[in-house]
Structures are given as structure tokens and as C-alpha cells.
Amino acid sequence: MRVGDLIERVTASHPDGDALRHLSDALAVSELLDDLSDRLLGHFVQAVRDAGAAWAEIGRSMGVTRQAAQKRFAARPGDVAALAGVDDR
Q1: 45, 73 contact by CB (below 8 A)
Q2: Could you give the maximum distance between any two Cα atoms of the chain, in Å?
Q3: 82, 43, 64, 68: CA torsion to nearest 10
Q4: pTM of the predicted model as reported, rounded to 2 decimal places
Q5: Tens of pLDDT, residue by residue, the chain (89 residues)
Q6: Which end of the chain has a smaller Cβ tally under 10 Å, C or N?
């Protein structure tokens, strides 16, 4: 994925839009990419957790502390209930 492709997609969504409209659309795309990025990392964090890796190992691999990795990716009880039945295709 290239930045140029994303720029083209944003401007094509509103070809007659002004710069502020394009900025608003770019923000929406950026937020979607942030969410996808978190879900991608979360998938692989869960895979290494399932394989028995400790939070300290995960943190080292990601270049953060154990606490930072655990805070970002450890499922909290409310999160698990909210994710029940979610289709991640």
C-alpha cells in the first residue's frame, strides 16, 4: 500500500471537494487504518500469547515495556464481552 494510492482514493471519493473536505475524508481513512493496524497487531500478539510467550517477551519484541504491551493488548473482561459474536473477516 502506498501513500499515493490513499491520496488518490481520498480525492476520488469527492472529486469536486475542496481541501477541507479532502482533509476530513483523509482523517476518516487514517482512523480506519489505525483500527486495522491495532487489529493486525492484536491478532499476532494473541498468537504469541497462545504459544506461551510472556508479556515481557512481547514487549521486547515490540520495542516497548512489558507494561505498555500488556496495557495495550491484554483483554479486559468488558472487552471480551463486547467482542463476542464480532465477525473479523
Answers
A1: yes
A2: 53
A3: 10
A4: 0.71
A5: 899 999 999 999 999 999 999 999 999 999 999 999 999 999 999 999 999 999 999 999 999 999 999 999 997 665 554 555 554 44
A6: C
